Every structure is written in structure tokens, then in C-alpha cells.
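Objective 1b: paired records.
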Amino acid sequence: MTRLTFLGTGGGRFVTLTQERSTGGIYLEDGHRVHIDPGPGALHALKRNRIDPTMTGGIMISHCHPDHYANAEILMEGISGGRGDQRGFLIAAYSVTTGRDKVGPAISRYHQEKMRTVLTVAPGDEFRMGKLKGTATVAFHSDPDSVGFRFETGDGIVSYVSDTAMDQGLIAPHKGARVLIVSSTRPLGAPIPFHLSTDDVAVLAESIRPEVVFLTHMGKKFIKEGPRKQARWVEERSGVRTVAAEDDMRVLIRGSIEVISRRRNRRFKVRPFNSLDNEEKTSDEEPDG
């Protein structure tokens, strides 16, 4: 079984500052334990979810903005056991490990040397760490080295679209995904440069057609407009089951996909959107807040 834990579903500078939603990133467990984009709040989120950071196998960072990397160095201390042991891996964009112009590096040489393996990746690069196999995917962001990630787990493909502008080039790298996680910073009708809005997510969902889309990395306006309202719009527009992720939400991926919401004390199996009756749609998506 593959398990995802949303350690934080907020994003952008204002939500990062207020922490009205955590910005702790995503935790993937599939043989290896991988922490993806551990921004501010990651340490507290691990504690809330009773995840031991010293058991993490590696850190993955999509780009050099603090809401994606700010807690990474202390987590790397944990991976290495707080000693001089080289253990674990860091897989990250060039701006994170090396830096370019005024951007980065985000991770010091001292902390990089604590890892057994450091891989700097660009779109299309494949990687394997033990049983974990994946590919860095293209992104179109203000950090020109930004990437997303596609993971080939034992229970199917899990894909992560990090901060990016909308582009048709995003579609092909994520085809075949069972689970598509999308950084959905802006709500319907309110685009900004270099970030995806609800309108864009619907296009990706309709084109890629995963079993389920999870919306995360939500900006302040997105939260104010109502995340479940945005998810409902994507579903109706694309015909693809869409869930507005919540802090500490867990997803169990096996023959079926099950969602556990600690916030609403509820668990449900993902079914195709067209198979849901109106009552189930309403109970899943409303009220918001």
C-alpha cells in the first residue's frame, strides 16, 4: 500500500506568514519514506501526524522558494541522525542545490554533505532510490529551474504538479497517473503569473484523467473563496473526481483509493465523479470553511 499525508495544504507568501493552513508539504510512503517540499510548518505537522522524521529516507524539493524548502535543513539533520553519518538522499532542482543568479542555493553545502546522495534534477531526468522510481517533470515558474515529480509506486503512478504557469507541456509527463496532486494557488477567475488557478486545474484534470485530483498549496484568496467549492467546479467541468486536500489528510492507495479526513472525522473511498449521487456530492463538498 502507498500512503500520502498532506502535512500542509497552504502556499504562497501570505498563507505561509499566517499559517492559516500549514505549509509542511507532502509525505509519501511506499517502501521509502519521502518528504516532498517541506516548507514552514513541516516539523509541527510531522509531530501532529506522529511521523518520526529520523525515519525519513529522503527530501525532494521542487524549487527555490521558502514555502517549499524552509524546514528542509533541520529535517536533513534528522535523517542523518544528528551526527556526521551520511544517510538518505536529497533530490532537488538546480536552484536548490547549486543556485543560479540571485536564486539559491536553498540548502547549504554543510547539509548537502550530510546526505549519502544528492541528485540535481531537470525535467525528464529519471531517478531511483531503492524501490522508489520517478521522473522530474517540467514546470513553468519564476524560478526557471523548477520541476514537478512523477512517482512510479507499487500501487500506480502518483504525480505532483508544483508551482507553474499553465502550459500544454504539463499534460504528457503526468499521463497515466492514478493520483494527480496539483498546486492550486488561485481560485476560479483570478489568475496570476507563474501559478495555476482552478480554471487551469480543470484543463489538466480533463486532459490527464487520473482517478482523483487533489488540490493543495492554496493561496489566501483560494481559501477565502472556498476550497471545496473550487474542487466541485473542477469535477463538474472535467468529470474527474477532485478533492480539496486538508491539513493532515491521509490517502491510502491500493486497489481502491481511500481518503481519511481528520478535520471532518470522515473516511471515504474515491469513486468516479459521474457515479456519485447528489447527496454524496453535497456531503463531500459542503459546507466549506
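Objective 1b, second protein:
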Amino acid sequence: MGIRVKSDVYDRWIKTVSARRLLALEAGWLREVVSGFHGENLAYVGVDDTPRFLKRSQLRHPFCLGLPWQKNHPCAARVRDDAWPLPDNSIDVVVMQHSLDMSVRPHQMVREAARVLMPHGYIVVVGFSPVSLFGVLRRINLFSTRLPWVVNCVDSHRLRDWLTLLDFRIESVTPALHLWPLRLISEGSSRRVDRLLHGSGWVPGNGYILVARKTVAGVTPISPQRWQFLPVGFGGAVPAAFSDGSVSSRIPYTLRSEKVTDNES
């Protein structure tokens, strides 16, 4: 599997003022989202090297999963887009902060997150919006090898379709990062503007926060069926009665399906 982001590129970007501002803004919003969840396990897969907002989690065991290019990133285990070292239905909440943007196979990563989530578990995705000012700047920097311009933005509508096909119910999609990566007079004023505009629909957001819940419908067990041949000789003709009382002998044999009830078994 190819890797879109290189380790040295990530290490340089994560220390920039723009990246720290991005993560600080998103940490505040994620803190509010995560604090409303309860359960045992929360898996974080994202670009934040120190996701302090996890300390506000109500889940008992929050932990980080590292991406292949996060070599200096402390984590419980490393994951690939198509292979997470976690059993099926074992996680209550998965938080994916720009991990889809950094992936060459975002659809497969979504499938892995869906696989490890328990029924009725939550997935939280933070992503960049391609239909935004950021999307325009990314096209201008199309041949750049630096973050954040090398990302592979996944549109929120496209992500909604993927999740719906995987039996998720979309709880909310909140536009975010209306000003970032632009800067006003100071960093402080820039952050205040983004916090003020957070969730606003009248200004296009450069990012979004999507929350969805895995709602796998329960499977109704099907009672075993006992197929019985009507008592006829092998290959003989069996009269088949119609509603008017007439019969037909053109059917060589007839199968009758009977459900086995508790009284019969």
C-alpha cells in the first residue's frame, strides 16, 4: 500500500503555527463531542500527536492508534488503511481526525472503522472540505509536497453515502474551520473568529465534524423448514388442486414447505 504522507513532512508540519492552531481549535470541539459518549473503549486515529481532549472522555479505555508515517507518535499499535489490529465489534467510539484526508484508501479505512465498532457505537470524523476556500488553495498548491496541501479531501456528502451503506445513521455534520488556514491580525483573533463561526451555515467551512452511529438491525432467526414429498410413487403424477376444485396431473411431483413449530419438534 502506498503512503501519501511522508514521516519527515508530517514531523515538520505538526510543529508549524498553522498546524498547532488547527489542532487547538479541533481539540476544543472534539472535547465537547467526546464528553457525551460512554462505554469501555475509544480508539483515536488522527494527526494530533498529543490528543489531550481524550482526557475529557467518559470512556474507560481511550487509546491511540498510529498511522504508518507517524514514526515518533506514541500509540498502542499502528494501523494501515485496510488492516487494523483490532477484533470485530470491540470498540465503542472511533475518532478519526484527518486520517481519511491522509489516506490513499479512505473508503477502506472507513470499512475498517465500521468493522471494529460495536453495534450502536459511534464514529467521529474530522475532515477537510474540498468545496471550500481550502479546496481552492489546495488546487493552487497542487504540485506541493507539503502538508496540508498533499491531503486527499473526502467530501462530507460522499462520506455520508459510505456510512449509510455500512448501516450507520448520521447524527450530525457540523461545518468548521471557516477562517483557517487564513490568518487575521493575530493568532488569538484568528482563533476567536473560527470559534465564533463554528457551525455556521452561511459561511462555507474549510472542514467538518461528522458524527454517525452504527445501527445494525437485529437478524430475525428463520425457523428451519422440513420439506415433505406428498406420498406418491417415484416419478408418478400428483393431482394438484386449484381454487375451483379442479385438478391438474401435469405436475410430476409437488413439494410442500412446512415450518417446524415448537409443538412439532
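The two ends are 53 Å apart (CA to CA). The longest helix spans residues 17-34.
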